[in-house]
Q: What sequence folds into this?
């Protein structure tokens, strides 16, 4: 126990030292950013007479001997605002929709991970498209990024590749519908692990001895850990392309999303004084960032310690599922079919 306490002190001191370094780096960047290249104030625009929608999904999964089970659902929520307050809340398909059950067979460990993620995303993006068609909101928000994470992309010879291709098709339909109907579309990432802002910030610093330590520090920093100290409440970073897209068309995003790939931009927004900045991925161009930021800030700044869009909080509450939701289903399937649970789930002691 004594060794554990010593280790805890050691780790705590290391974290404290690292945070102190980030604060120093943030202060340096603020001072160097005289032209507001890195951080800029957002003018909050209280929503009035418009609809803002959000979509989120919930998922629970279990493995049986030879089979994998997934229960998932997605909910779309649409708030109608009047003088900055929610006048009406509507849901699609309903407040607490019945979850869907999926049975998967003969998947290796990696395909199983990919498949569960693809199932959830397909439900969410299909729901987002239906929510957009049904309510025609001014702004539609996804909980998470606006495109699948690179780790969610299965290999071309994977058994779940066809399902992933169907997911990409749904994304493109959503992008097209929103673009054609004047619906602003964005994804809000609550806990980003990105480093792209730090990379770009490093590139803006001149290569001289005064800046060398800052450039080196940025290499080992994550965006949100730095921006927590660098951004003031109600500020955002500059907008930048989600990923480097060249003209060759070989980039994965270009292959999957065509002309939309170069229109995916990102910025970070600090919505609450004592909370970490959120990452906002959106379809548009750099000049649209202020419009997105002003609307998202207005519906996120309700608590000094937690700043997340209220419509996405409601969508999460409607869609999330308890881990034990699938247990009774597993028991019934095991009793009716005789299929065994995994050994680690059926130990007698």
A:
């Amino acid at each position: 126990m004594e060794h554990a306490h010593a280790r805890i002190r050691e780790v705590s001191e290391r974290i404290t030292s690292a945070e102190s370094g980030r604060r120093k780096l943030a202060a340096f960047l603020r001072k160097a950013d005289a032209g507001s290249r890195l951080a800029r104030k957002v003018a909050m625009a209280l929503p009035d007479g418009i609809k803002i929608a959000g979509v989120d999904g919930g998922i629970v999964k279990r493995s049986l001997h030879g089979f994998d089970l997934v229960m998932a659902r997605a909910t779309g929520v649409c708030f109608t605002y009047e003088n900055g307050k929610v006048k009406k809340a509507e849901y699609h398909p309903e407040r607490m929709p019945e979850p869907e059950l999926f049975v998967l067979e003969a998947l290796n460990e990696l395909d199983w991970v990919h498949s569960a993620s693809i199932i959830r995303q397909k439900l969410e993006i299909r729901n987002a498209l239906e929510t957009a068609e049904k309510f025609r909101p001014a702004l539609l928000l996804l909980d998470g990024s606006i495109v699948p994470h690179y780790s969610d992309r299965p290999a071309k010879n994977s058994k779940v590749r066809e399902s992933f291709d169907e997911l990409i098709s749904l994304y493109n339909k959503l992008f097209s519908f929103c673009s054609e109907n004047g619906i602003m579309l964005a994804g809000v990432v609550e806990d980003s692990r990105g480093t792209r802002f730090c990379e770009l910030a490093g590139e803006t610093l001149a290569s001289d001895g005064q800046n060398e330590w800052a450039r080196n520090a940025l290499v080992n920093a994550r965006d949100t850990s730095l921006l927590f100290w660098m951004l003031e409440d109600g500020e955002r970073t500059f907008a930048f392309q989600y990923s480097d897209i060249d003209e060759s068309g070989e980039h994965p995003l270009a292959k999957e999303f065509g002309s939309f790939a170069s229109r995916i931009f990102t910025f970070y927004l600090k919505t609450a004084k004592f909370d970490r900045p959120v990452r906002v991925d959106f379809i548009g161009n750099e000049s649209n960032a202020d419009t997105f930021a002003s609307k998202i800030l207005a519906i996120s700044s309700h608590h000094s310690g937690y700043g997340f869009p209220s419509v996405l909080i409601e969508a999460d509450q409607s869609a999330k599922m308890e881990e034990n939701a699938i247990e009774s289903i597993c028991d019934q399937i095991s009793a009716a079919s005789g299929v065994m649970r995994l050994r680690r789930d059926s130990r007698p002691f």
About this structure: The two ends are 27 Å apart (CA to CA).
